[in-house]
Amino acid sequence: MAGIEYEAKALDIDPVKTARLITDAGGTQQGEPRLMRRYVYDTVPAIPGRWVRLRDTGAGITLCVKQISTDAIDGTHETEVTVDSFEEANALLGLVGLTPRSYQENRRTSYTLGSVRLELDEWPRIPPYLEIEADNEAEVWDAAAALGIDRDRLTSINTTKVYGLYGIDLDSIADLRFE
């Protein structure tokens, strides 16, 4: 599957309060909170803003190439396929010369509000954030408004840049796990 991601983040949120805002607005939780793990690889040749991600969401495993052209709400393009095994896909990528530059974990609790996907993400070393993802820009803004989140509180920067806001160089961390 290929396409543009329409998403924005509300940083430094209280997960309990935000979960309540979502359900009060009519949103529903999609399963239990889960640990997600991923390997991140450079493309060949390495190009800034583009990388390969192998991710186990706890509900499925995907392999994708992400390309960030801008920090705008529609600035990320993703091409993604489903794979059967996290370990075997990593081994296969190794056979074609891709070695992970990092291993990363986060915890995610997923919600939907209509057709909008809401992710409460917790990452090691930084405060939690809410990711709002939809099929178009208007749906992202509408969901934020339904939750009482002002547009000026939202950002579309990627996780590497979020870490940078807290003085952490994510690219220099080869193994990012919960302690």
TrEMBL record:
<dbReference type="InterPro" id="IPR033469">
    <property type="entry name" value="CYTH-like_dom_sf"/>
</dbReference>
<feature type="domain" description="CYTH">
    <location>
        <begin position="4"/>
        <end position="145"/>
    </location>
</feature>
<dbReference type="InterPro" id="IPR023577">
    <property type="entry name" value="CYTH_domain"/>
</dbReference>
<dbReference type="Pfam" id="PF01928">
    <property type="entry name" value="CYTH"/>
</dbReference>
<protein>
    <submittedName>
        <fullName>CYTH domain-containing protein</fullName>
    </submittedName>
</protein>
